[in-house]
């Protein structure tokens, strides 16, 4: 038996674009189901919105996202941060570089941190804050 905690990002009308962007960054297999495909579109404008999107990225990463349907309260900005960490400097640096493309804000550049790791923090183009920590990376 296993248990897994997965980031699930709620967006307003941007889930498809966000999942495509994250697919470019994390690679792997992307599946998207729309409200229309599931017969759950209460409003015809919701038919092509993402009811559930799942990215099974490389290195065991799993990320999910969806759009808020019309008439429901949905997120305008993310209220959580997603943290990536480990000792695979090449992969984590590549993820950082991908996530930083078009970022709204680079809060802390990816650089040697006081605790000895390499660390960076940014808010991506979809308003999601990412923290990247590379353990024991040579710097």
From TrEMBL:
Matching Pfam families: 3-dmu-9_3-mt
Domain PhnB-like: 12-132
Official protein name in the record: VOC family protein
Residue ranges that the Swiss-Prot or TrEMBL entry lists as coiled coil: none
InterPro entries (alphabetical): Glyas_Bleomycin-R_OHBP_Dase (IPR029068), PhnB-like (IPR028973)
Domain of life: Bacteria
């Amino acid at each position: 038996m296993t248990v897994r905690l997965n980031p699930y990002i709620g967006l307003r009308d941007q889930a498809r674009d966000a999942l495509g962007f994250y697919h470019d960054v994390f690679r792997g297999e992307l599946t998207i189901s729309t409200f229309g495909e599931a017969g759950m579109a209460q409003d015809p404008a919701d038919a092509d919105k993402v009811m559930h999107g799942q990215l099974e990225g490389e290195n065991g990463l799993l990320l999910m996202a969806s759009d808020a349907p019309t008439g429901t309260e949905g997120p305008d900005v993310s209220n959580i941060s997603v943290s990536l960490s480990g000792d695979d400097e090449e992969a984590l640096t590549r993820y950082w570089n991908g996530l930083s493309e078009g970022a709204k804000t680079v809060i802390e550049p990816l650089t040697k941190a006081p605790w000895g790791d390499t660390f960076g923090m940014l808010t991506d183009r979809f308003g999601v804050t990412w923290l990247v920590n590379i353990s024991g990376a040579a710097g």
